[in-house]
Amino acid sequence: MCRRFRAGTREDRMSEIWDPFGTLHRALWIGGAQWAGKSTVARILAHRHGLTAYHYDYHDARGHQDRRIARRVALGQPTEDPDPETVWVHTTAEDMAAETLAGFPVRFTWALDDLRALSSGRPILAEGWGLRPELVAPLLDTPRRMVVMVPTEEFRSHQLATLPRAGAMGGRFSDPDRAQANRIGRDRLVGEDAAHRAAVLGIRVLRVDGSRDAESIADDVADHFAPFLAPAASA
Known about the structure:
Elements: H1 10-15, H2 23-26, E1 28-32, H3 38-49, E2 52-55, H4 56-61, H5 65-74, H6 84-89, H7 93-116, E3 124-127, H8 133-136, E4 146-151, H9 153-162, H10 164-167, H11 176-201, E5 204-208, H12 214-224
Parallel strand pairs: 1-3, 1-4, 2-3, 4-5
Helix pairs in contact: 3-12, 7-11
């Protein structure tokens, strides 16, 4: 039997998370896979409902670099980023996915520090693939505060074919086709793992197949978050 979200354990879970301003426990969350439209939906909802949007990927790639280096120093590891050939070519999608999943808990603590520092008269909406359902769940008083967005294989292929940044690797490799295949495979495995974990926890999974535009998907997510949102601003 799948273990569902248990509202009765809310106080036990939440008491373990340091949240001096109550920001984390009032937040809304969009997790899931790469290229599912999470950032776009978050921006739409932020403008409609006056939310404060936190984009995990932006902070993870930029603002957390100093903490990443400091952690390597503390662990006695090299401070330089790993060799791109080792990361993307001389590996497998399965190994990349396993390494990514293993690293998310530490990276999540850095995101929580960012979010603790935010204060807003409206809800804070945090989005990003590192906001994993199993990590966010202990913060939730109800699973309705989170949604997990995952693209279908068809939509993922469409994104790669039509959106230049979706297929950009940002470097030169000895075997660019293998590097790209590894990245695509990693993203698929990490996304499906998020969907599976969300389903076990009773968190809604939204499959994005490209049949609807971002505004329509944002409508769906807004309906899911409706108990926590102010009415949409007039156009």
